[in-house]
Amino acid sequence: MKLINRSKANKAIITTSNFKIETKVQNSILRYKKIILQNGTKAFKQINDELGLKTPKTLKVSIKDIKKSEGLLTDNIKIAILQAANNIKTVCKSDLNKANFKAIETTKGIKIWKEFKPIDKVGIYVPGGSAPLVSSLLMQLIPAIVAGCKNITICTPPLKNGDVAPEILWAAKQYGVTNIYKVGGAQAIFAMAYGSTIVPKVDKIFGPGNAYVNAAKQLISSEGISIDLPAGPSEVLVITNDINKVKLAASDALSQLEHDPNSQALIMSCKLNVLNAVKKEIQNQQKLLKRQSILKDSIKNLLLIKAKSFVDSVAVINDCAPEHLILLDDDYSLYLKDINNAGSIFCGPLSPESFGDYASGTNHVLPTNGNAKTHSGLSINDFGKYISVQTASQEGFNNLKNTVIELANAEKLDAHINAVKIRETFLESVRPGRTSVDIRKTNETSIYINLNLDGSGNYNINTGIKYLDHLLEQFAKHSSIDLQLTSIGDLEIDEHHSIEDIAITLGESIKSALGQRNGISRYASSETLVMDEVQCNVSIDLSTRRYLKFKASKLREFVGDFPTEMFKHFFVSLINSAALTCHINTTGENSHHILEATFKTFARAFKSAIVIESDSSSSTKGVL
Fold first, then answer.
1. Does residue 386 lie in a domain region?
2. Can you give the residue range of the structural domain that contains 547?
3. Which cofactor does the UniProt annotation name (predicted)?
4. Residue 402 within a domain
């Protein structure tokens, strides 16, 4: 325990966490790697024998053992696991919602968006030892599940009896993960990296561990195999100027120092009396703790820092970039705007770092060794990647082509220029169309529409609701528009979100494709269609007045998989979004006929209204 007084000198804070991999460790993992690659699954026993460890008879955990974990745990630990998992999942879902990028128009007719796609095969390493680190599993498994990873492999060292801790198995069981292997240490990392054993090869490896595990991860990372974060011993920086929070500061420091002999804690204050009191309190609390064998070494890594001022405190924080930063005092908000470097921040006296380690919902896999200057903590982003997508309409192509030709010419890349100019020739052979590409993403749905009002009735529709597909196919065919529509929605919950959002997005796409609506016929008066006993009448005005008058005979609850309560609602959403006026009146007895006739008649009326008759507006106002 050492005191640094920055009031006397601007002494740099040198952290003891900046350790290098020992030669002994480096040599061992290189040998383990060679053994794994040469001997495959047999290598596990060879390495375990060298380390004096017993190798289980079966390396993969059986479904029977996973199910058996249910009866080996108390209700209290199950409830604790579920509450922690729920909080972590809530944060992950919030992150996923932010990952849904709405399409933006950078230049008129040029649309850009991003697609978040999960990594297919991920490997999760859960350290073992004297106690099951179920929190480590939750922090990795839940973001993987929320991100959408389909193939998840878990490696963890078994207990002395050869079994995996039931807490680990039960938590994995809640998410349907059964690829669990009784393999620990560097050999688990190499097994998941190279796929030369019973353990499957994965695309990215996650998880903390001892020096050997971290050295193995660094080695495979240097070979181009993806890992999560640069790892090192735990760190915490605690800030307080309140003598009444001395016990809190001491307890937070010790909660990190008990992790590992190389763990580090820093306690900083502008008041020397606070630091002196903290020193005594740490000595008092340390005596009462169980992990004395670790604390006797890690306590040497405790620094007490006397800051010159608030500004100096912020400078130290940003320079150290601690894994955990605890702002104990009630003025924590004053710090937040100036803190640029920290893995995770705990604000106020009632937010112990222990909350983040276990159950508040933030992830406890965080950057160490100053890596918080350039890295974030683990999140769903680490379990996926973003793919940028763009599309150009004819208008967009014409708006951007000269800019691209000019830039490519400056860089003397004539093939780039040719790729643009050849499309100018292509456009001369293509009939101009009123087109639109629209993407709508919400928490419940992702909808993609490519529409051409001047098409020939071609369609490719997949909404996940078969009868709605049929109705929209009728709309495309009878209106002669080309319609490509895909919807991915939460149909396992209800059809409502998908049907409503499809109608909204289709309306937005129609509105966009119509543009200024100059020269269109505008009106379709009393389009009538009969289908057996059903008669449908539809009138349309493509002015931008939003109004729907809707009347239809009584329907049964469902037609196919389409809930008929959404029949009128579909048109309400479509008409409002497309900005048009529509009157619909359908009478009949057969529910199937009523729905189909309405969509066909609306399509035929729409086809008449969008016909281009002149170059001018069809309104005396000069604009619709």
1. no
2. 431-609
3. Zn(2+)
4. no
Residue in 235, 323, 500, 596 annotated catalytic: 323
pLDDT reported for residue 502 = 98
Tell whether 96 and 199 lie within a shared domain: yes
**CATH number of the domain to which 280 belongs:** 3.40.50.1980
pLDDT recorded at residue 132: 78
Separation CA 124–CA 140 (nearest Å): 7
**Quick one: pLDDT at residue 16?**
47
In a 10 Å sphere around its CB, with 0-12 CB exposed, 13-18 middle and 19+ buried, how is residue 488 labelled? middle
Domain CATH code at residue 436: 3.30.230.40
Cα–Cα distance measured from residue 566 to residue 578, given in angstroms and rounded to the nearest whole number: 18
Q: pLDDT at position 131, please? A: 72
| Cβ pair 266, 303 in contact under 8 A | yes
pLDDT at position 19? 52
Average pLDDT per consecutive 10 residues, the chain (624 residues; last block may be shorter): 82 59 86 94 93 91 96 96 96 87 88 94 88 91 97 95 94 97 95 93 94 92 91 91 97 93 93 96 93 92 94 95 96 95 96 94 92 94 95 92 97 97 88 85 91 95 97 97 95 93 97 91 90 96 95 97 97 98 97 98 97 74 64
Residue type, 465: I
User: Identity (one letter) of the amino acid at 537?
Assistant: N
* 8 A C-beta contact, residue 590 and residue 533: yes
Alpha-carbon dihedral angle through residues 128, 367, 251, 136, given to the nearest 10 degrees: -30
Same domain, 289 and 162: no
Instruction: Tell which of 227, 257, 281 closes a domain.
Output: 227
The pLDDT value given to residue 101: 77
Tell which residue, 85, 97, 140, 174, has the closest CA to residue 361.
85
Whether 153 maps to a domain, the answer reads: yes
In this structure, the answer to whether residues 510 and 455 fall within a common structural domain is yes
Q: Indicate the SS3 state at residue 110.
A: strand
Choice among 235, 258, 281, 324 that is catalytic: 324
Among the candidates 207, 227, 247, a domain finishes at 227
Predicted local confidence at residue 113, as pLDDT: 92
Residues 189, 249: one domain? no
Q: Is 235 a catalytic residue?
A: no
- Exposure letters 539-561 (e unless 16+ CB within 10 A, then b): bbbbbeeeebebebeebeeebee
pLDDT at 21: 67
Q: What is the DSSP string of 370-410?
A: TGGGT-----GGGGEEEEEEEEE-HHHHHHHHHHHHHHHHH
In sign, the C-alpha dihedral spanning 72, 74, 75, 76 is negative
DSSP per residue, 324-338: EEEE-STTTHHHHTT
For residues 532 and 578, state if they share a domain.
yes
Is residue 441 in some structural domain?
A: yes
Give the Cβ contact number of residue 387 at 10 Å: 10
What's residue 295's pLDDT? 92
28/10 same-domain check: no
- Give the number of domains in the chain: 3
Active site residue 497: no
Q: Are 80 and 357 in contact (CB under 8 A)?
A: no
User: Do 10 and 28 reside in the same domain of the chain?
Assistant: no
| CA pair distance 307, 288, nearest whole angstrom | 30
Q: Are 186 and 71 found together in one domain?
A: yes
